[in-house]
Design goal:
- This protein has one domain: Lipocalin.
- It is 12% helix and 49% strand.
- The chain has an 8-stranded antiparallel beta barrel.
- The protein is globular, with a radius of gyration of 17 Å.
Length: 142
């Protein structure tokens, strides 16, 4: 019996652990319209967390360019755009980095964390000073 319990724990632990982190693919949901906009992949690079747009839901927007971006990102495709940059872990949050909204052309400080009630929901908060907006993204199963 003991071996059976150990086997079950070892078999299912990787799946449980994977659902408890922020890394992977997330469907972005517009906070105003409730419309799904894109798929963003959250990943780690050099000890920091980044997020890149890997798919755009609306087929008419797949070739959109970032006309409101500045510098080297100006007029580059939104598909493949790295919108979350340089977040670091601080307790249950990832913060101290930025998020860029290519539709509005604005950069915000960023904080992300798994929803406390549902690890398949990612709370994404962009803020300037004490003003902020929050979106809730949904995990995309691979």
């Amino acid at each position: 019996m003991h071996r059976c319990v150990v086997f079950i724990a070892l078999f299912f632990f990787p799946f449980i652990g994977n659902a408890q982190d922020i890394f992977g693919k997330w469907k972005t949901i517009d906070a105003v319209s409730g419309e799904a906009k894109s798929i963003v992949e959250i990943y780690e690079r050099d000890g920091k967390v980044f997020g890149k747009i890997i798919d755009i839901i609306n087929p008419l927007d797949k070739d959109a360019l970032c006309t409101k971006c500045e510098g080297e990102d100006y007029n580059q495709p939104v598909l493949g755009f790295e919108l979350i940059k340089n977040l670091t872990k601080d307790g249950s949050y990832y913060k101290n980095g930025s998020i860029f909204d290519p539709e509005q052309g604005k950069k915000y400080k960023c904080r992300i964390a798994l929803d406390t009630d549902n690890p398949n929901v990612l709370q994404v908060r962009g803020y300037i000073s004490f003003l902020y907006a929050t979106q809730y993204w949904l995990r995309v199963e691979s």
